[in-house]
Amino acid sequence: MNLTIDHVSKRFGNKIALEEVTLVLTTGVYGILGSNGSGKTTLMRILASVMKPTTGTVYLNGQDIVQMDHQYRELIGYLPQHVGLYKNFTAEKLLKYTAALKGLAKEETNKKVAEVLTLVGLSDVRKGKVGKFSGGMKRRIGIAQALLNDPKILIVDEPTAGLDPKERIRFRNLLSQISKDRIVLLSTHIVSDIEFIAKEILMLKNGKMISQETPQTLLKGIEDKVWSVLVTEEEMLYYQNNFKVGNINRVQDKCNIRMVSDSKPHETAVREVPNLEDLYLYYFDEEQPEHATT
Length: 294
Hints:
The chain is of the alpha/beta class.
């Protein structure tokens, strides 16, 4: 399976949300990194066939998805960041209702609902009302809805926002599990969510695709740009004002600062092994990444 985005741009009046984005996606998990306003959600909405590009074309196995119309939409599973759920419905009733909207045959619905409930770990609460579910359970019922039609392309926008560490781990393992024969596109601010499951990371900045590489390749590109230095409380302000500082750990009466810098920030600075939070900080310094405790 091959999903090709060919010089896709999207404009809203005078605002350019996406500019000449070109990339190729095949089976596996892709993580999208970018700060607010980078174009992540716009790209995902175009790929989900919720929105049409201003210019450019998206192809699935060589076919224009606009011309494919409903044939393409039948292959899509889409979980937006904010999804409305009928709070008084049980999990089972909600999924059966969604299955009907998706056009699943009645004889197929019961089997498919049971299957996705098991997959997302909610079989034991299938009779429970969705309104009483935790945030993590609601995100899982959301992904269950998206999987009802057995989509070949699964698009998930900020799936772990607001979840506790246990639910976050559960959710990213679920996405990894179901990516075996699908294209899974995952947008997030929490970089640890994609560090171990994404085969490639797409980096968007100001509507432009600035990189499409494996996590290992991206990290290799900044392996000489991550430093730590032990400074006094008074010196800390200087580094915060002049460098891209990630973490500050207090060590007795001093501070150990981790930062990204193209050059050695101080003669006593020590080079550190980079991670994806450092990568985010290096490219998107206007906004700090969210830290996930695992």
